[in-house]
Amino acid sequence: MSTNILFDAPGPRGRLRNNILTLLSVVILASAAYYVYARFDAKGQWEGEIWKPFLDVSTWTEYIIPGLLGTLKAAGISAVCALVFGAIFGLARLSDHRWVRGVAGAVVETFRAIPLLLLIFFLFFLAPSVFGGGDYTLIALVAGLTLYNGSVLAEIVRAGVRAVPSGQAEAAQAIGLRKSQVMRLVLLPQAVTAMMPAIVSQLVVLLKDTALGYIIAYVDLLNMGFKLIPAVHFGSLIPAAIVIGVIYVGLNMSLSTLATWLERRTRRSNRTSAAPIAPPGAVGEPETSGAGTLL
Amino acid sequence: MDDLIKYAPDLLAGFLENVKLSLICAVLALVLGTILVSMRVSPTPVLRGAGTVYVNIVRNTPLTLVLAFSSLGLSDTIGLAFSATPSTNSFWLVVFGLSAYTATFVCEALRAGINTVPLGQAEAARAIGLTFLQSLRLIILPQAFRTVVAPLGSVMIAMIKNTTVAIAGGYLMESAFVMRDTFDDTGVSIPIFVGLVIAFMAVTLPVGFVTSRLASKLAVAR
């Protein structure tokens, strides 16, 4: 929408008021920014010395890139496992057998309700007492992320299959397809397109949650940037935080952009009869009255 | 089971810290989120831009980094202090970080809610001569809040679960830390884990139930 409907095209007085408001907010924001700058400056955080390590190739090759690879490894393995977990339990929740539905429902609802960090701690301490000594940081992190995000993905899969209009399944049954064929040939291909945006949004959550590995000392981007770099280059904590923050934000924003793009494509697509489903916890789509939306 | 009974007082004290964190952060995140969403729909491009930048940066940063930065960066390096007592100081640092983080999700939920208010409502508000703030306060936000009760409930549930990450902000009194501490002492204990999970469920499930009931009760008939 080109013009915002919450306010009229301002007249002379309105323009003056808006300009004053703009000026005021610029002053307030600038003074807030200056205050932060000054506080950081007072502690010498803008001095070239502590930023220098980040111009050094070895900082990147020895710390940041291995850390990033650690994060991506944990995120990649967990994403694959969570998708498999989600597909199995999501479909199990749609089963015709009551006990399968019940068990899958109980598993999904439980793991969705457990605080992820408690689950990771539990697995981290459980693993050595079951499998003997060793380094279980990656396994605990991946298992925790899989169980939690897999449960959320299971709900997305269920919602995706349900979003396919019932006529599709009925038509498939009418031409004599078996139950598994209806699912495999008719429902799933359409559901996958509809749930793609929600899946990618959940993968952003998964990627962000890999940072919990920092707490159990898994060597990821946060651990490298926040524990090791400041330990080697004394005083570089804030620069390190800013650099790894930019990397995290960049990664997540590009994934989010992909999700938005996928959603637009699904909305236009004629390969599915289902509308894209909302990611968990999102606000339902507005009824399209042809009047457009406010923002 | 013996472990659970033996450590129950510690665990309960830890869990009450989570409840305390949740209550304070809920209020602060709702207030800050509402301010942010007002900025993002305001007629002032500077405020809109500032709101968008803040939300996109903080929302895409891992909470662990936000909390670790509040504690190690803002407090230890820059000298931001809420209190002279270390544990009280780290409590408020966690409140600061968690509220700043959760507010972005509140803002996004509210913004999505504003999107569901039909255009005609805003046009009608303008037509009877309400100003920007009046139409926001009397027409748009009341309807937006109603549609976002359920999503806000999900945001609050996520926030309650996120209070366990307080450990990254150096606050070492809540239940995740207590649980790790006990596991360090006695080894892994399934009853302790299950007990804590049930305690969290006892808080999050009613929140989910009440908000979804409220959502269907308050739903705007259109």
TrEMBL record, chain A:
This is Amino acid ABC transporter permease. Its main location: membrane. Keywords: Cell membrane, Membrane, Transmembrane, Transmembrane helix, Transport. It comes from Microtetraspora glauca. InterPro entries: AA_ABC_transptr_permease_3TM, ArtM/GltK/GlnP/TcyL/YhdX-like, MetI-like, MetI-like_sf. PROSITE patterns: ABC_TM1 (PS50928). Residues 270-295 are annotated as: Disordered. NCBIfam families: HEQRo_perm_3TM. SUPFAM superfamilies: MetI-like. It is found in: Cell membrane. Residues 68-259 form the ABC transmembrane type-1 domain. Pfam families: BPD_transp_1. Belongs to the binding-protein-dependent transport system permease family. It is a multi-pass membrane protein. The chain crosses the membrane at residues 20-37, 63-92, 113-131, 137-157, 185-217, 237-262.
From TrEMBL, chain B:
Pfam families: BPD_transp_1. The chain crosses the membrane at residues 21-42, 62-84, 91-112, 124-141, 148-172, 192-215. Keywords: Amino-acid transport, Cell membrane, Membrane, Transmembrane, Transmembrane helix, Transport. It is a multi-pass membrane protein. It is found in: Cell membrane. Its main location: membrane. Residues 15-211 form the ABC transmembrane type-1 domain. CDD domains: TM_PBP2. It comes from the Bacteria. Belongs to the binding-protein-dependent transport system permease family. HisMQ subfamily. This is Amino acid ABC transporter permease. It comes from Microtetraspora glauca.
